[in-house]
Amino acid sequence: MKRFTYRAKDVNGKLVTGEVEASSLEHAAKLVRDRKLVVISLTSQKESVFTFFKRFGKRVSGGDITAFTRQFATMINAGLPITESLSILRLQSKPSMQGVLSQILSDVESGESLSESLSKNPKTFSPTYIALIKAGEKGGVLDTVLTRLADNLEKEQEFKGKVKGALIYPIVIVIGMAVVGFIMIIFIVPKLTELYTQFDADLPLPTKVLIAISDFMVKFWPIVILAVFGAVNLFRIYRKTKTGRRKTDELLFKIPIIGELQKKVVLTEVSRTMSLMVGSGVSILEGLSITSGVVGNVIVSDALKDSAKLVEKGFPLAFAFARHSEAFPYLLSQMIAVGEETGKMEEVLSKVSHIFEVESDQKVKALTSAVEPLIMVVLGIGVAFMVISIIMPIYNLTNKF
Q1: Quick check: keyword Transcription regulation in the entry (predicted)?
Q2: Fewer Cβ atoms within 10 Å of its own Cβ: the N or the C terminal residue of the chain?
Q3: Average pLDDT of span 35-44
Q4: Which residue from 11, 233, 205 is spatially nearest to 105, judged by alpha carbons?
Q5: pTM of the predicted structure, to 2 decimals
Q6: Burial of 53 by CB count in 10 Å (0-12 exposed, 13-18 middle, 19+ buried)?
Q7: What is the mean pLDDT of the chain?
Q8: Confidence check: pLDDT of 1 > 80
Q9: pLDDT over 70 for what percent of the chain?
């Protein structure tokens, strides 16, 4: 897909600029016309490092969407029309959001529904987001849906922030250890090797091992780095295949602590999204279908798809979930059964999502508690090996004199 920059006029004759991704110039022109715009000019962007970073900087983040949704909900609840709210938000938003909001405003002013306009930006607004807006428009409760959606996005951002914040310390320590070890092996050890050679020192086994590693890395470090990057890319390519994605997701669920954490995070996302959809008027069947497309784990995604088929045939949701113990715990199917019997599915799913969120927090704490001592042990062993390898020959030299 190529990127094209366009200049066009909207239905009011106002000049509009923006970008589209398309396979050809004709396809790009069609996409612009689909936005109810008259094309003035259309140029293909040349790929370069500069344009890559420029485009990366223009990406709309999850925080941008959350802030927009909260502000939009506040304005709609205050009684402002959709077009006026979008116009104000376009002026106040970050540059990354201004182009998107300009297109949405133009579409809505030309008679399209808000959900139809949002669906033209699938990389910015998720299928869940669009389905909820559509349900709000149909039920005449857009203000309520936007408020609930903003609350949900804020909770989601906070939850993801907690998980990332807890994991960033061990990751930084590991990266720091790798960088220091690389510098020592490439630059420091060769200098010491020259010193030992000059004095004809007797080298103990740890020192010989360290020197052998250093010699190999000095000669072949570019190949080692390329091999690491190649292995990472091969893994990414394999993970993009249907079999690879399933195998890696299955393996991830089986890793002690990390697997349980991943499952709790995914289940929190599923139950929270389903609660929001049911409460906004989206059917269970549609909610399952949409959630299966946005959940980040293929095991849970396939279980949701199969559950949707069973629900479509008339089976209760609790029964459908109970058939997939590899994805859904017993607690979830039991709570859903209670929700189906009492007619309080939204409330039950909300409580379940809170339970999973609390359990996720506990798993994060358990993971950091387990990883930090392990890192310290590995770091201690590495430092001890380096010290012994470097100091022992020097000690042997001093004994000679």
Answers
A1: no
A2: C
A3: 83
A4: 11
A5: 0.71
A6: exposed
A7: 85
A8: no
A9: 95
- Neighbouring C-alpha atoms within 13 Å toward the C-beta of 204: 14
- Top-level class of domain 2-57: alpha beta
Selection from 321, 349, 354, 325 nearest residue 335 by Cα? 349
pLDDT band at residue 307 using 50, 70 and 90 as cut-offs? very high
Q: By CB neighbour count within 10 A (0-12 exposed, 13-18 middle, 19+ buried), where does 9 fall?
A: middle
Closest CA to 12 of 121, 102, 115: 102
d(CA 257, CA 400): 52
Tell me, what's the pLDDT at 386? Answer: 84
**Domain 136-401: top CATH class:** mainly alpha
What CA–CA distance (Å, rounded) separates 265 from 363? 10
Question: CA distances (Å), 368 to each of 164, 166, 174, 258, 373, in order?
Answer: 11, 7, 13, 10, 9
Give the pLDDT score at 291.
87
HEC sequence for the chain: CEEEEEEEECCCCCEEEEEEEECCHHHHHHHHHHCCCEEEEEEECCCCHHHHHHHHHCCCCHHHHHHHHHHHHHHHHCCCCHHHHHHHHHHHCCHHHHHHHHHHHHHHHCCCCHHHHHCCCCCCCCHHHHHHHHHHHHHCCHHHHHHHHHHHHHHHHHHHHHHHHHHHHHHHHHHHHHHHHHHHHHHHHHHHHHHHHHCCCCCCHHHHHHHHHHHHHHHHHHHHHHHHHHHHHHHHHHHHCHHHHHHHHHHHHHCCCHHHHHHHHHHHHHHHHHHHHHHCCCCHHHHHHHHHHHCCCHHHHHHHHHHHHHHHCCCCHHHHHHCCCCCCCHHHHHHHHHHHHHCCHHHHHHHHHHHHHHHHHHHHHHHHHHHHHHHHHHHHHHHHHHHHHHHHHHHHHHHHC
Domain ranges for the chain: 2-57, 136-401
